[in-house]
């Protein structure tokens, strides 16, 4: 299965050409940058979970030489090289993969507009280990106030597709607000991914005047949760939406009542806002004490958006607004639980960024291979997690011939 996976990467994404462009700041390396990065990439693909785990496999004689070459790096070498690699090349690899997916018609238009989600994720908080780029906060532990250090980043992610599509990540600096990092991220994403999305969907933290003005300036619409952080707008919407007749529809086990009104304004925002309020009744069927029971849950939401009803109908707006949870469930939760996203491979800002981008690449390529290369009968036998187990088993069955079209070993001294 591993050889089949590698052949798929070569055929569809021209993988070797991108890997050969990797570089780092070492002057006289004994092991190529490609060999070091591929070791980290295989760690992510097989969900090894740590550098020591993949280093243990690399130490086995003649193991993985067809993938990383005859000169194999140690765990310390992988961490050191990731700390001096150029992240722009990894971002270019991620961009090339996503653009190839779009060319291959794997990103069909689900709604009249395409949406990308923005959200923050925290990585490996600690009360002891820190670096100059760590964020800080004070928490209370056993009645005593202590400082907790952590790294955080804003991720841009396409929503509405079968395959999880992470686009890029921007780390948040110490003392920096989330939306400031998000604006830096969007500037780079808009340059690297033209016409990939038309609007941003985000939580209430992004419903701020500076961020709305930034998005409108760059011809991006915004859909954000409306809470008490914009109390004036929420109060006006609550009062006025009562005079609008609700629309109703059923979607699976969810019954929705929706109130939709446009024409709201925020000071210094050069566009009218539209507010959508929904009340949702969710029917859940569960077994309790051997009997099947039906339980109903009620939820209500407010969203504010710059998209007019003529451009996006109310039902599509409701779907896109709820699709924001894909970045939480399909990316952050899945990768933190199964792909060691929150593991600290090396506590150095550049290394942290490069490991995150490598994990995103591995996650995206494995998901694409699973959904697009494996037959339905084979997908019915195991999940994506089962596929990574098959790939790990395949490491021990590869022959001596190199599977990549690149030279992985430097000439001897």
Description:
The longest helix has 24 residues. Helix 3 crosses helix 6. Strands 1, 2, 3, 4, 5, 6, 7, 8, 9 and 10 form a ten-stranded mixed β-sheet that branches. Helix content is 39%, strand content 23%. Among the domains are: 141 residues, no CATH class; 87 residues, no CATH class.
Strand content: 15-25%
The helix tally amounts to 15
User: What's the story with the biggest beta sheet?
Assistant: 10 strands, mixed
Estimate the global geometry from the Cα principal axes: globular
Count of beta strands: 10
Question: What pattern of helices and strands is seen along the backbone?
Answer: HHHHHHHEEEEHEHEHEEEEHHHHH
- Judged by helices, strands and strand pairing, the structural class is alpha+beta
Write down the Rg.
24 Å
What helical percentage do the residues reach? Answer: 25-40%
Residue runs with pLDDT of under 50 for 5 or more positions? none
List the helices and strands and how they pair.
Layout (H helix, E strand, L loop, with lengths): L1 H12 L1 H5 L13 H13 L5 H8 L6 H4 L6 H8 L4 H17 L11 E12 L8 E7 L2 E15 L6 E7 L6 H15 L6 E4 L6 H9 L3 E5 L5 H10 L6 E5 L2 E11 L8 E16 L2 E15 L8 H9 L2 H14 L10 H24 L3 H4 L4 H11 L19
Parallel strand pairs: 1-5, 5-6
Antiparallel strand pairs: 1-3, 2-3, 3-4, 6-10, 7-8, 8-9, 9-10
Helix pairs in contact: 3-4, 3-6, 3-13, 4-6, 6-13, 7-13
